Amino acid sequence: MSKKTKATAKEITFNDLAGGLAKAMANLKRAYVQVSEPFARSNGRIAYAVTVADVTKGSGTLGFSATGFATETERGLLLREFAQLRINTPSAWKRLAEAAKAVASEVRDTGQAKRLVSGAFMLFGQMARNGNGVRVIARVIDAKSPFYLMSFSLFVGESKRQPGSYYVMPSPDINYGTCTFELTRRNQQMIPVIPARGEDGAIIRGEDGAVEYTQGESRWVTCVTGALDALAYVMEGALARVAAEKAYTIIQAKSAEA
After folding, report:
1. Cβ distance 173 to 179 under 8 Å?
2. CB-based contact 99:121 (threshold 8 Å)
3. CA-to-CA distance for 255 and 28, rounded, in angstroms?
């Protein structure tokens, strides 16, 4: 394993990460927020791109930014989640890519999933389903970062042109050196299937006694896959609220100047 990555098998427990949540939330007041010009969604509602940049000295994600899309409401801006995470400094990307390669190397050597800690990240790697590379999930574990517990995925594959040489995807933009990760959507609108009811409210059953079903009203559903993911959801929700409040203040200030 390369010493350059400073990756270790250090054990970080759920309690360790849960303990950092309060500290991370307290740091959100320092989050730097930018907001785009308004645009209209397909449903006609006004929305804004809201970007949070990590400018905290000593943070392991200094130079990172996350962008989400907030909808204008009567009470302010509604920002449910972030859509993209961007690494804006080539040096930060290089360190993360080296760590991802180190994890992938362990996975290839042992044939088993591996978890390693490298700087501000905890990385979990396992063989891709097609067996042609390693999927690596990186999670931010530095409580100084506004993106604490946020996770994103990378892919480490072997070059066909240069056997023994490995690449990491997504790769940086060739012109700007930035690297963008598309984040998993937690919140989705779904139409549930519910028991059908008659006018009197009683559940309708067929001749065989089986309950009949119908489509219910559209509702928002949040996908959380475990206890750690639940912590990440709470943290991202707090960041989204802070970002929306700061963005709305900026919008109001611009409106007052106009």
Report:
1. yes
2. yes
3. 25
